Amino acid sequence: MVQPVTVGLDIAKNVFYAHGIDAQGQKVLSRKLRRRSRAFFAKLEPCLVGIEACATAHHWARTIEKLGHQVRLMPPAYVKPYVKTQNNDAADAEAICKR
């Protein structure tokens, strides 16, 4: 598997969506994750992880940073213009990644 350079993570109640791109901007990862699956980020090489700011975003940012990744939080208003289709979790993860 090609390692992503940037990962967009959309946080929801029970399921997270991750979307990753390589250095050329090509999609290399699109995955649905359970909330307890920290092992997914432990397996990845250090990369930039973007998370839309919400109530639990700071907790997950600290957790992912402990695994060696660089995390950036962004307000939802900055993500909204990048959503191409209808608003769902997978589209939000892609928009976070592109932002």
Structure description:
The chain has a single domain (6-79, 88-98), classed as YqgF/RNase H-like domain (Nucleotidyltransferase, domain 5, 2-Layer Sandwich), CATH 3.30.420.140. Strands 3-2-1-4-5 form a 5-stranded mixed beta sheet. The mean pLDDT is 86. Strand 4, helix 2 (57-65) and strand 5 form a beta-alpha-beta unit. The chain is built from 4 helices and 5 strands. The protein is globular, with a radius of gyration of 12 Å. By secondary structure, it is α/β, with parallel strands linked by helices.
Unreliable stretches: none
CATH topology: Nucleotidyltransferase, domain 5
Gyration radius over CA: 12 Å
The span between the termini is 23 Å
Q: SSE string, helix = H, strand = E?
A: EEEHEHEHH
